[in-house]
Specification:
Helix content: 10-25%
CATH topology of the largest domain: RNA Polymerase Alpha Subunit, Chain A, domain 2
CATH architecture of the largest domain: Beta Complex
Number of strands: 14
Radius of gyration: 25 Å
Strand order of the largest sheet: 1-2-14-11
Strand content: 35-45%
Number of domains: 2
């Protein structure tokens, strides 16, 4: 297996994995979505809510606020000594108290753990008019997205076949493909048309249809996949990838141990 990093930012990454099967590529995608524990608000005590939102809608909005934390400091409720009853080892408390007129943002959530805070400070939660008030206490726990979408650490995690774009000597430099391509894959270089970045190709084949000379061919590289990962900020893109790979490794090891037991 070979890995080529094309882009690596705090919340976004693009990389190419070659010499792997489609099953492995899809397994990596699923692991990034569902196999990484994430902290999210799971329980809300509402002491006062005179806003226009029902209690259930307010609780839903609070649950969907992305939180970042140190996951190594907490245990999953199912694995904690308290057996999910709730303690400092498996949960963190956040409080919110606001009175209108104002717009309540994620920065108004006060956490008992300074490392467990909202990813972005300016996520709007609710607008309060004059005389309206919200007082809540929230409990955040680790969980997996197979339980609820609020535990999903990625906004997007997908892959596609690595495209191969070739231009033959039959090209008459009409530049029709440059105007037709929505991704800017082609550009004019002196007296010829060249491919700027074949990774940008979506394989829509509009360039093939517009090329009267039949000089353009679109295909895909076998056993090579271009991944794009965007996180919600609860983890960095690098952490999401490495934790997903570790999850696959652990499950493979568990399967091997189970098979050896028979």
């Amino acid at each position: 297996m070979k890995v080529e990093i094309l882009e690596l930012k705090d919340r976004k990454a693009k990389f190419v994995v070659t010499d792997v099967t489609p099953a492995f590529a899809n397994g990596l995608r699923r692991a990034m979505i569902a196999d990484i524990p994430k902290m999210a608000i799971d329980y809300v005590d509402i002491y006062d809510n005179t806003s226009v939102l029902f209690d259930e809608m307010l609780a839903l909005r609070l649950g969907l606020v992305p939180l970042k934390t140190n996951p190594d400091m907490y245990q999953l409720p199912s694995e904690c000594e308290c057996k999910g009853a709730g303690c400092s080892l498996c949960q963190a408390s956040l409080t919110l108290s606001a009175e209108g007129p104002c717009v309540v943002h994620s920065k108004d959530l006060k956490s008992s753990d300074p490392e467990t805070i909202a990813v972005d400070a300016n996520i709007p939660i609710i607008e309060l008019k004059q005389g309206q008030k919200v007082v809540v206490n929230c409990v955040a726990r680790l969980g997996f997205s197979r339980e609820h979408a609020k535990y999903q650490p990625v906004c997007a995690a997908g892959y596609k076949n690595v495209p191969i774009v070739t231009i033959s000597d039959q090209c008459d430099t009409c530049k029709a493909c440059i105007d037709e391509c929505p991704r800017g894959v082609f550009k004019a270089d002196k007296n010829k048309v060249v491919v700027t970045d074949h990774y940008q190709c979506s394989m829509c084949k509009l360039c093939v249809d517009v090329c009267d000379a039949g000089a353009i061919a679109i295909s895909s590289q076998e056993h090579a996949y271009l991944f794009t990962v965007e996180t919600d900020g609860s983890y960095s893109a690098q952490e999401v990838i490495t934790r997903a790979v570790q999850s696959i490794k652990n499950r493979a090891q568990q399967l091997g141990e189970t098979l050896e037991a028979f």
